[in-house]
Design goal:
about 150 residues; alpha+beta; 4-stranded mixed β-sheet; two-stranded antiparallel ribbon
């Protein structure tokens, strides 16, 4: 993928801001460091407020998990999961929280795509498939916490 221009970045800004109305823990976004390595998928990192994530899901903090992952996480649920030992069965609470947060991540990505495909052409990054220009798919790489 080529470097994004200012209008294409504005398109992503519009999509993320619009989606954040439904998911208020989303505060901003940034391009995934290696986004140019992919043609049909645009990976972004979402910047989220963990206090608002906690409120949105009605989860309680797990300080040990929060500290072990730092500010770059692959799932919204990680800072709230019960601690477990690698190799031991995951608790129902662990599974439920992971499923719940994964479902929300999928809803966010679906919202991104629906909005993105309906933006004016100049705001959308595309890729070529047999001569057709197709909008890239916006996918969340990581959540960066504030």
């Amino acid at each position: 993928m080529n470097e994004l221009n200012k209008k294409q970045i504005k398109g992503i800004d519009i999509v993320v801001k619009s989606t954040s109305r439904k998911f208020p823990f989303i505060k901003s976004w940034e391009l995934y460091d290696e986004y140019q390595e992919y043609n049909s998928i645009l990976y972004i990192n979402l910047i989220v407020d963990l206090n608002l994530v906690k409120d949105y899901f009605n989860f309680e903090w797990n300080p040990e998990m929060s500290e072990s992952y730092g500010n770059k996480i692959e799932s919204l649920g990680l800072p709230f999961l019960p601690k477990y030992k690698i190799g031991s069965p995951q608790s129902p609470e662990y599974t439920k929280k992971m499923e719940k947060t994964e479902e929300v991540k999928n809803k966010i990505e679906k919202s991104f795509q629906n909005l993105y495909e309906n933006l004016p052409d100049q705001l959308v990054s595309t890729w070529q498939l047999i001569g057709d220009e197709i909008p890239v798919t916006i996918t969340i790489s990581h959540f960066l916490t504030i």
